[in-house]
Amino acid sequence: MRDLLPTEASHMTLVEETFKSTLASYGYDEIRLPTMEWTVLFQRGVGEDTDAVGKEMYTFEDSSGESISLRPEGTASCVRAAISNTMLRGDRPRLWYTGNMFRHEQPQKGRYREFMQVGAEVFGYTGPDIDVELIQICEDVWRKLGISDRIDLQINTLGNLESRLAFRNALVDFLVPLKGTLDPDSVRRLDTNPLRILDSKSEETQNLLQNAPRLTDYLDEPSTKYFEELRRILSEAGVSYSVKERMVRGLDYYSHAVFEWHSDDLGAQSQVGGGGRYDGLVERLGGSACPASGFAVGIDRIALVRDAAGKSADHRSCDVYVISLDSSGDTYVNKISRILREQADLRVRKHHGGGRVKNRFRDADRSGALWALVVGEEEMAAQTITLKPLRTDEPQITIATEAMIDFFNDKLKKDLAN
Length: 418
Ligand code: HAM
Prior knowledge:
alpha+beta
């Protein structure tokens, strides 16, 4: 049961906000999706043979005997929502969502049972230009977060259904005689999802795969063209990437372009985001055929990459800590606090609970505020405030209350920027 304490939470919020504003700047609309769905949605949408659904899902029966699951990812829900709310009839929505996802994995650095994703899904576009847009959105976010040089983009194509089937058959023909030497997971996948064997973690299996058929040799002409076009647009847009022929992604709905972002900062869990095209999913979930593409990024993992880059959020609960020295000054400082919040856009924490003056200043210091704003009898009588800097050696000053907005807009904003 994982808590995100204020410092970590504010860092996650920063990452999330950067995604939100970037997605909005591309004209994407927010959608809020439920945390729970009927289990069958994920079984049908993501695939029962995937780890996320087959092994790691939190599934339970509700009091009416229905099988419910906590969402392991957002794509299946987004597609369901688009179909059931008739969003795909004549429209081509571009949607984004954020929220907590659940997978019963072995927890370790960067891998949690409850984690946060931000994702985007676009519907109705067949060409690779929209895939490149999705990639560019993430590239913009990496730049804004100062981590572009720590994240690498890897791409691959799974081709269309026909190409993938032809390749799947060839791969099974190659692997069946080697069944006795494959790792147990791969043996299971031979029947259920042979393509996933390609990204097996077992070194022996990877060695056996050296001579396996290659997907590129089975791509038909439309699939090859699609991938060439994707690569051309990416290069023209100045996006650097590498092609990883064995990347097949862990979820079953993909076709054509697939992509992942990785960072060396995360150890074993190097993947910070992933996505791709999933042209068959809308139909599989009961809608009319509709091409679609999307990505999801792990917010927890991006925060870890920023930590590694020394860019952890510097958490401060407030900018100004307001202390009234006498209870008779409470109404006055309440007013001052409200004015500062509304007119100077500052985070203002007011002291509560009385106590010794020394302890009030101790609380001010612990709040992380840059300034303590102090009002006693003298200040009230003269309509002034006293400002004590908490993080520098500058002397305290007393200024007219009516001048405080100008003061804060000028001085404090400068301090905050440093
Ligand atoms: P995914 O690759 O399974 O894709 O997950 C996306 C991201 O979620 C991962 O790259 C990782 O950063 C994060 N993530 C996954 N599991 C964990 C975990 N246990 N702890 C922390 N972070 C984790 C999807 O979920 C697809 N729905 C992406 C997509 C959208 N494809 C098309 N549209």
